[in-house]
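>> received
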Amino acid sequence: MRKNWVGLLILGLFVFLAGCSQQATPEDRLETYIGYWNKGEFTEMYDGFLNDGTKEAYDKTQFVERQQKLKEDLGIENLEVSYTKPAEDTEWNAEQPADFPVQIKMDTIAGPVEFEKTLTLLHEKHGETEDWFVEWDPSFIFPQLEAEDEIRIDSIEAVRGEILDRNGLGIAVNGGGYNIGVVPEKFTDKTKKAELAKILNLTVEEIDAELGQSWVKPELFVPLAKIARNNTEVLDKAIAIPGVAAQQVAMREYPYAEALGHLTGYIGSITAEQLEERKGEGYASGDQIGRQGLERALEKQLRGKNGVRIWIDKPAEGAEPITVAEQPVTDGENVTLTIDAELQKKAFAAMKGEPGAAAAVNPDTGETLALVSSPSFDPNEFMLGISGDRFKELEADPKTPLFNRFAQAYAPGSTLKPVTAAIGMEAGTLDPAEGLEIKGKTWQNVSRLHPEAPNPIDLNKALVYSDNIYFAQQAVKMGNETFVEGLKKYGFGEDIPFAMNLAASQISNDGTIDSDGQLAATSFGQGQMLTNILHLAAMYEPFLTDGKMYKPTLLLDEEDSQVWKEGLISAENAATLRTGMRKVVVDGYAQSANVPGLALAGKTGTAELKATGEERGKENGFFVTYNEDEPDMLLAIMIENVEDNGGSDYVAEMAAQIFK
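>> returned
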């Protein structure tokens, strides 16, 4: 019996000592508490760690829900709480509070926040448990925050940068427009509702929905639709109806409308998909974002950064607000283009709404002076939120105004012939003075447009009469390898180095030429060859610069005259081609460009479309030209389906109008 009693005593003592050795220190408790704090696990912090006094002062809702909401509203991320470790020989007295300096860091939507406070732990008994518990107040969320205070957020919207042309003319600007709406007590003729709906491209039901909102009062203006400043036709018709009014509002404006529509693009409300893609970049639902064209391509430069301020609102009368964090507003950058907006407007008008594309470049710098897709759309319509019916109307238009043609690649037809000649002359296989005897209309499946051309056919005659057989024979003479290598030197098969995405020009679908038949067709821009309109214009630069092709630029602050390709043609051979291209206009089949006072030179081209059914027999017409007296602009134009309009001479007439 005595042995049992002694054994139990020893066991009890062991358990007591073991319990004492496992008693948590205030530092142990603090480490665990900070672990939950860094994870944002506020419920665990409240339930297991706060002392009685704190729980009496702040209920669970105040502690947990408030901090969770602030974390979401303020975009709190990368919370990092740490503490200064006490000396190793520190002894803790349960009768005394344990104080620890804690360091708190976090990132918010208004920038980083960092502060230090002293956190106190008290030894208390909670039920059967004795331990160290945290004394807390709202200043551990932000310094100087008290229970009655409110956290406020101020947002200052950044001003979007504008897009200007080379002469400082605005092509995407922060202008204004009109809010068209009604004052209910004055809009009493209900028969006019359908008329107004038609003018504003709305339905009567949509107007009724706006007028039925809870805030609407008889004397208040109720906005129905926004229109661009230049939409005077709609404005005049709408405000002619009694009770209809217009209020000026700030909005993005595109002064050149359709002429620059595909180039500028437009802004619009951010979509859910874009919001997800740009998570963490500061976008929110309802923000405006570039949706097409340069507005989209230059979004980072144009957007700017909204200013945000987080501050503490004290309820006491006269109390000064306390700023917690502040990110100053940074307005977007203005971007100046190499584009000449008035030139672009003239080119767009000269194309008469015909489906096609045009590009103008400065041959000495590589600057893009115009980049046109015709027909086009008015970006003001899209920026304001185009109606479903209007969008369907544009989609159903057989001329496809929503299709960006300058970004596509097309068979260049005979406009490639000067390039073919240049490759042959540089390879030593083409002697421009040597004449070929070409008889009949065809040679190995290659047809001639002008079999009446007098023999022998030298390079000049071949250019004037656009003789397919001459260029086919020259390509066969130089061979696949030489011809393909020559085309690659002109940039075929490469992505064009440009600020917007353009389809790469190709020699063929796989970049090779597999037969003499394909070689012959490619020599005059058919077969599987494709080129975009800007590259086509740039390919003529070496004929004016004695061999150099410059990187095409679109932003005015880009370095000028960056050599993209060089050594393409000798000065002597370039002069030979210039002579031939002037004769194309004077003696050849671009007579509409043979205008008094303008020494235009260049090359026409037609490209047959490889199509079946209704598309069979369709041709695209081209003209690449420059003014021999002032060769500071190269212009390339392509118009679709010119077979019934006089072929490529129809395009030459448009070019002449632009130069005039």
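>> The first helix runs from residue 2 to 22.
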